[in-house]
Design goal:
single chain; 368 residues; alpha/beta; Enolase-like, domain 1; TIM Barrel; 2 domains; 7-stranded parallel β-sheet; 4-stranded antiparallel β-sheet; 15 strands; 35% helix
């Protein structure tokens, strides 16, 4: 296989509803799309880096720079047997997993299309449908939060995740357990607390949560080890896990009991599959987190979620939940039972809508 060209595009898409987490609020997403031509076949990927370096050190602008000035030169004119080989070719660049993951994902899509296979099958997926949960941002009032949860449950979502931060934690969870005593409920702190807050986090155990996601520092594995010793509720790690080595350390040292695998955060399918297999061997369930992706990134999340150890509902929601109009055809929809059917067509199984993509594009660069 050989990659002939790569096109970078920044599209801007306004969220239907602003999304707030402990580190900030997002209303307009700047999304970096990566289009590759591999042996004459087009593949698409999406960089999930944010507008600011709050969730991750990477941003849309740093990813553009790394893709153009460092990753493209590493792949240009190179021959490789399969998309699975791309990760090693990009090894001279340290870090920058989101930039790497978007390029690698585009090549996986191209290979699947070239071979006439669904991407889910090419990566070893086994599911025909995936279970869906939903992530709800921090709300201004408890009434607004309750209304949002009612709406998502009526849509069929199987699990509710709410974002929390100091001052907006115990009361929201208490209210939801009062109004919805039987739902699958979890919380996500996005690193908003320190180990000194463990008594407060311990109080959350009274509301029988599925898990507490990334309560402590984004790079603080040690404190999560200490916190998990104090809690019966499983800790789920997100921001702390960027590599297979970090996942192994977290599992063997007891820092968590669940891992959220995000394609962009770990650098693409090659590392995601290694972390998936590691977790499966150790009996650690995994699920797929979301990053406010467009339909292209969402399609890749669907494919990833078909691997057998993705046993918990992920944050892969319907297009309409985020966008008035998505950039793929058809848009992603969920069933009344809260599932998404895995597409069976070649590649990601959805077609990028070029006319709409071009309309939303604010900058573009073609590399040959």
């Amino acid at each position: 296989m050989r990659i002939q060209e790569m096109t970078l595009r920044e599209v801007q898409m306004k969220l239907v509803t602003p999304f707030e987490i402990s580190v900030g609020r997002t209303e307009l997403r700047r999304i970096l799309l990566v289009e590759t031509s591999v042996d004459g076949v087009t593949g698409w990927g999406e960089c999930v880096a944010g507008e600011s370096p709050s969730y991750s050190p990477e941003t849309v602008d740093t990813a553009w720079h790394i893709l153009r000035d460092f990753l493209w030169p590493l792949l240009k004119e190179k021959e490789f047997a399969a998309a699975a080989d791309v990760w090693d070719l990009l090894a001279p660049v340290r870090g920058h997993s989101m930039a790497k993951g978007s390029l690698e994902a585009a090549i996986w899509d191209a290979q699947a299309r070239r071979e006439g296979l669904a991407l889910s099958k090419l990566i070893g997926g086994t599911r025909q449908e995936i279970a869906c949960g939903v992530s709800i941002g921090i709300k201004d009032s408890l009434e607004e939060l309750v209304c949002a949860v009612k709406k998502e449950l009526a849509a069929g979502y199987q699990r509710i995740k709410i974002k929390i931060k100091p001052g907006k934690d115990l009361d929201p969870v208490r209210r939801l357990r009062q109004d919805f005593p039987r739902i699958k409920l979890m919380v996500d702190a996005n690193s908003a607390y320190t180990l000194n807050d463990w008594p407060l986090l311990k109080q959350l155990e009274g509301f029988y949560l599925m898990m507490i996601e990334q309560p402590l520092g984004w790079d603080d594995l040690y404190s999560h080890i200490e916190l998990q010793k104090k809690l019966d509720t499983p800790i789920c790690l997100d921001e702390c896990i960027h590599t297979e080595e970090q996942a192994r350390a977290a599992i063997e040292l007891g820092a968590c009991k669940i891992i959220n695998i995000k394609l962009g955060r770990v650098g693409g399918y090659t590392v995601a599959r290694r972390i998936h297999d590691l977790c499966q061997r150790h009996g650690i369930p995994v699920w797929c987190g979301g990053m406010l992706e467009s339909g292209i990134g969402r399609a890749h999340n669907i494919a990833l979620s078909t691997l057998p150890n993705f046993t918990l509902p992920g944050d892969v929601a319907a297009s309409k939940r985020y966008w008035e109009e998505d950039i793929i055809d058809p848009e992603v929809t969920i069933s009344p039972q809260g599932t998404i059917c895995v597409p069976t067509g070649p590649g990601i199984g959805f077609e990028p809508r070029r006319e709409r993509i071009e309309k939303l594009t604010v900058r573009k660069e073609r590399l040959v």
